[in-house]
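Hi team,

Below is the intake form for HTH tetR-type domain-containing protein from Dyadobacter beijingensis. Please confirm the fields before the structure is written into the shared record.

FORM ID: S-0412
PROTEIN: HTH tetR-type domain-containing protein
ORGANISM: Dyadobacter beijingensis
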Amino acid sequence: MSKKIYKADRTKLFIIESVAEVFNKKGYAGTSMADVEVITGLSRGGIYAHFKNKETLALAVFDYNLSKLCSVIQNRIKKTCSAADKLLVYARVYKALAEDSVILGGSPILNTGSEADDTNSLLRERVAEASFKWQQLMILLIEEGKRSGEFKSDVDASQMAFSMLSLIEGGLLLARLTKDQSRMEQILDAYQQMIRANMVR
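The structure came back. Fields below:
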């Protein structure tokens, strides 16, 4: 890789890392290119040399924030053994998101999805894809639990995964709207009850 390309890659990553938090907090519409210029210290032309437009930058930032979140979840899952404990990781990480102790601003899926549903089809599609992949990963964990005898053999893995993902995403939204972090404790309890209800006793 030439020094010129290497420098371009570093600058591109610098821009993404610099504005990741503000995009996650203020959203696509709420973050202006003037904000990006101030935060990065780069001119608009310098930014557009690496990103075709604001939408391309927003997509790259979403991917970056999602990657950080996935990394946290995967690292915690690696430290668990049972399928039930692996599923609990999701709820515990979402509780941490509500407290801004994982990614400042909360869940990139929830934040970007709630804004992009009507305003930006590319962002909406990227969020929908990420949400679908997470649901599929949860389905795999539930199926793993069924094979190991943790979960009942007649559990509908797809429905259970959808319900759990909806619960934690909705709980995080309520916690944000009401500014009441105790909501996530209630959601965590409900999530645990859902898992226990589907386990072999």
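SUMMARY LINE: DSSP finds nine helices and no strands in the chain.

Thanks, M.
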